[in-house]
Design a protein that fits this description.
Number of strands: 0
Bound molecules: flavin-adenine dinucleotide
Order of helices and strands: HHHHHHHH
GO molecular function, one term: flavin-dependent sulfhydryl oxidase activity
Main location: mitochondrion
Largest sheet: none
CATH topology of the largest domain: Four Helix Bundle (Hemerythrin (Met), subunit A)
Radius of gyration: 19 Å
CATH architecture of the largest domain: Up-down Bundle
Strand content: under 5%
Helix content: 40-55%
Number of domains: 2
Keywords: Disulfide bond, FAD, Flavoprotein, Mitochondrion, Oxidoreductase
GO cellular component, one term: mitochondrial intermembrane space
InterPro entries: ALR/ERV, ERV/ALR_sulphydryl_oxid_sf, ERV/ALR_sulphydryl_oxidase
Distance between the termini: 43 Å
Amino acid sequence: MAEPSTSSSSSSKNAIPPGGMVLGPDGKPCKPCTAFRNWKPLSDAKKKSTRGGKSAAAMMAALASGQNAAADGDVPPPNCPADVEQLGRATWTFLHTTAAYYPERPTLNQRANMLGLLNALPSLYPCSHCASHLAGNMKDHPPDVSGRVALSRWLCERHNDVNERLGKDKFDCAKTDERWKDGPNDGTCD
Ligand SMILES: Cc1cc2nc3c(=O)[nH]c(=O)nc-3n(C[C@H](O)[C@H](O)[C@H](O)COP(=O)(O)OP(=O)(O)OC[C@H]3O[C@@H](n4cnc5c(N)ncnc54)[C@H](O)[C@@H]3O)c2cc1C
């Protein structure tokens, strides 16, 4: 599977760049393919003048949105288009929540609609290299839309495939309902 090319590199074999905008299939810079911190690579001088390499704007945005900039990394200011991470979090939230409320026994129509939604992602998801990885992954693991539990597990496993590729910890798929439907037993989400 092809890795994204970047505006700061001519090699299409580069992985997610340490700095530089990923280019989309049209050869143009692709914001939803790129982490905000790489939209405009800072010069060394600028890096030294910002705490931990974060721009003042990104730190203000993180504070304004209640996020911990140190823990979450740079985030686009609230009025900016989504970067690859915001888009990913929002999409996973939508997909996992939709799976959590999918019927235990879906009708044929509901199954067809869910299949349509999932099968559209590889061609429509705006992060093109994410979409192309997903297409390959879904070929090997076709969606299981037979019911709520099976769909939630299938989605958890696809998300874990991405986590693994990005070097992140795997999520315990036994905790999918706790995370996306019921909340923890300690009542913090009640
Ligand atoms: C289809 C798709 C493909 C993507 N491909 C790429 C890619 O190729 N390259 C890239 O850089 N980014 C990709 N992303 C974005 C990436 O997956 C993350 O969304 C982004 O890096 C932000 O990560 P995060 O650590 O904030 O949490 P996310 O991975 O966005 O997860 C959000 C929350 O979901 C929960 N969670 C985590 N794993 C699971 C799981 N397996 N099951 C259920 N819940 C879980 C956790 O509570 C987590 O905080 C993709 C996103 C999507 C939707």
